[in-house]
Amino acid sequence: AQSVTQPDIHITVSEGASLELRCNYSYGATPYLFWYVQSPGQGLQLLLKYFSGDTLVQGIKGFEAEFKRSQSSFNLRKPSVHWSDAAEYFCAVGANFGNEKLTFGTGTRLTIIP
Amino acid sequence: DARVTQTPRHKVTEMGQEVTMRCQPILGHNTVFWYRQTMMQGLELLAYFRNRAPLDDSGMPKDRFSAEMPDATLATLKIQPSEPRDSAVYFCASGSTAGGDTQYFGPGTRLTVL
Fold first, then answer.
1. Which residues 13-32 of chain A have a CB within 8 Å of chain B?
2. E-strand spans in B4-108?
3. For burial by CB atoms within 10 Å, which of A18, A43, A56, B2 has the most?
4. Nearest by Cα to B81 from B59, B58, B96, B61
5. For B21-58, how does the pLDDT look when each residue is reduced to its tens digit (9 = 90+)?
6. What are phi and psi of B31, to 5 degrees?
7. Of A43, A49, A97, which is closest to B91 when you measure between CB atoms?
8. SS3 for A83?
9. Nearest Cα residue in chain A from B110
């Protein structure tokens, strides 16, 4: 069975500081991995995705993520956060470019302090 | 800018009433998903369709929930009768197996059952 673990429920960082959100997955085949962001009262916006190839993927809003097969991880990073990055972040795993069921982690809520 | 649209955005109803939520997938997308988000369960897949045919509805309570795609531009999720435990945010997402386009989410319908 596939699963996603986001070990940090809530993270607080200062504006301008770097950020890393952790994601570990369990999947029996080649994983298709995703990060989505959800602002309060909004839907989920796709930040980035990993299908194959280069293990460092770039996304929107200055985010990047690195796929590490040996660690079953797909951590999200940003070198310098902005107040507008405050939101909930979800890691997900699926198959077929994400066109089958996605299994989501429980999310990490990000708070930015001035 | 192609988007998934959902109506209504908010719905308050009384226990026992029928609720219908609608989704318009991105034009050309052939896969439509229904997810439910609650504080307790997080994001969970209810059902999904490909080319209007149901592929998996195992996450849906069969006795009261039903999902259909009357045509390629409309997906519906019905709850009859509704119960307070159905209060949640219901998201529709669409994707395309042609070209490997992944899931894009709509803004959600926030349902409150009193």
1. 32
2. 5-7, 10-13, 19-24, 31-38, 42-50, 53-56, 65-71, 74-79, 88-96, 101-105
3. A43
4. B61
5. 999 999 999 999 999 999 999 999 999 999 999 999 99
6. -125, 130
7. A43
8. helix
9. A41
Residues in contact with B44: Cβ distance below 8 Å, sequence separation at least 6, in sequence order: B35, B36, B37, B59
- Which is it for strands B88-96 and B109-113: parallel, antiparallel or unpaired? antiparallel
How many Å apart are CA B19 and CA B84, to the nearest integer?
A: 12
Entry field: residues in chain A: 114
Q: Is B58 on the interface with A (CB under 8 A)?
A: no
Cβ distance A49 to A32 under 8 Å?
yes
CA B69, CA A70: separation in Å to the nearest integer?
A: 41
Q: Give A92 to chain B, closest Cα distance, Å.
A: 10
State the number of CA atoms in the 13 A half-sphere of B42 facing the CB: 18
Q: CB–CB of A54/A64 below 8 Å?
A: no
Task: Give the CA distances from residue A19 to residues A102, B35, B103, in Å, rounded to whole numbers and listed in that order.
Answer: 25, 28, 25
Nearest in space to A59 (alpha carbons), one of A40, A36, A41, A82: A36
> For residue A70, which phi and psi values (nearest 5 degrees)?
-65, -25
**Hey, what amino acid is at A90?**
F
Length of chain B: 114
Chain A residue with the nearest C-alpha to that of B34: A101
- Residues B81-111: tens digit of each pLDDT: 999 999 999 999 999 887 666 889 999 999 9
